Every structure is written in C-alpha cells, then in structure tokens.
Amino acid sequence: MDTAGVIHMEDKVKESEMTGKVHSAVYHQCQQRGYAAPADVLIDIGVLPRQKYESVKWGKKWKKNRTKNIKP
Prior knowledge:
Layout: H1 15-33, H2 38-44, H3 50-57
Helix pairs in contact: 1-2
C-alpha cells in the first residue's frame, strides 16, 4: 500500500507538507546567506528545538532515542 502523502497519526504531518517545509527552509537560507546548514533546516521546520541544538553544540549530550520522533 502506497502511503506517501498520507497522515499516519494525528501528530504527524503529511509527507508532502514536510517536503514543502524543507524546500522552503533551504530556499530561504540560501537566499539569506548563500548556503543551507542541515541543523538550521531542522530548526526552521520545527523538528529540532534551538535550545537542544545549542546545548549539544556546546558539549551537552542529547539522547539519541529522541530522533525516533523525526518521521515525516
């Protein structure tokens, strides 16, 4: 069964909606500074909280199992 673009759960977004958010974030970052950083894209689309990114960036550990929630 092809489930592309279908909502799987209430808290999940459509695959096409997620793709659009990623494209938009990459486009705007490229327009602003000439490149798009993966971490900034994740922050812009709301997958990675900025506070979590900053804490990992400065040496605090982030649980790997938290990435299970990153599914379109």
